Amino acid sequence: MAQIDLKNIAHSYAAAPSSEDDFALKKLDVSWQDGGAYALLGPSGCGKTTLLNIISGLLHPTQGAVLFDGADITPKPPEARNIAQVFQFPVIYDTMTVYQNLAFPLQNRKVPKRQIDVRVRRLADMLELSKYLSRKARDLSADEKQKISLGRGLIREDVAAILFDEPLTVIDPQLKWSLRSQLKRLHAEFNHTMIYVTHDQTEALTFADQVIVMSEGEIVQTASPQELFERPAHTFVGRFIGSPGMNVLPCAIDNTNVILAGHAINIGRNVTLPSDAERIELGVRPEFVKISTDENALPATVEAIEDAGRYRIARLRLHDLQLAVILPDGAALPSGTTGVIFDTENTHIYADGHLVERRA
Ligand code: ATP
Q1: Distance 60 CA to ligand 1 centre (A)
Q2: Which of 111, 122, 262, 303 is most buried per CB count within 10 Å?
Q3: How do residues 290-299 score in pLDDT, each as one tens digit?
């Protein structure tokens, strides 16, 4: 296992990049700790696979260096990097048995037979493949084949890191849930440095201790799942994470008051806006807004109530703004004209998309 540092990395697929727009990855500096569980999360096309391929050596970056435990490995090919990789689709040998598929990466490295046997059986057990060990891989379902792929990625103990590129895409939704938890357990037990690429927030948030949120070739925030939820550093993160995402509403600031839809809300602290800020917004998650008929509540009109399965969402209108509110379990359903109160601790101010740090 290794600590991975990316120094001043940028990548363009263009032969002669002439502007920032030509770069699939803008300048990045990243440090990933030995044994950490990380997720790269972002929408399609934001540069996740490009970044992963630079770490594995499948892609040589236009600029910058990749360091494993402080050693510069940028010029090294993938086979010299000691990395295990699991892709979106199964990479297995169809004519081999499940046992042979799992054992193969270890046999290649001349690991003693007894040791291979222990490791193969242990992983097969954790991935619920034990009963298939003597079956040919080609006879198994797509889900089981992808489990073999996961097993092959996890089988070696001596890898610098394990990279997963959307590994659960082909997996049945029911099984996805259990495999996500199994991967988390495997990480806790084996303590490999793991980097997991996904555009699915649930996968990223369940698997990783630290999530790297990317947008348009840049890292927007690196934080724990809890921090991404409670303190999104950018309105992009607020909207992208959560279901529904954070409410982002245009506002103005007047000392400790936020002026929103013509009403003043005291957020209990001063905010200092950057002098060149052009767009000021208030961000509050639907979980942190309460329906209330209290005299301090902002007047709002209920437009719809949606049933999201585990909870209900009220869609409200505040003057000309739209606001989503997650209703607590068992709460009476609001209708017509009502009011809302924001949890000020969890109400944030953003200038041109960026969180404005709080000041006492
Ligand atoms: P996805 O989830 O769809 O795989 P991603 O976040 O992994 O997306 P990348 O595949 O890294 O994103 O792509 C980043 C950008 O680079 C995109 O604009 C994509 O079109 C472009 N790109 C990726 N591979 C190539 C390539 N081989 N040649 C040219 N452009 C590419």
Answers
A1: 14
A2: 111
A3: 999 898 899 9
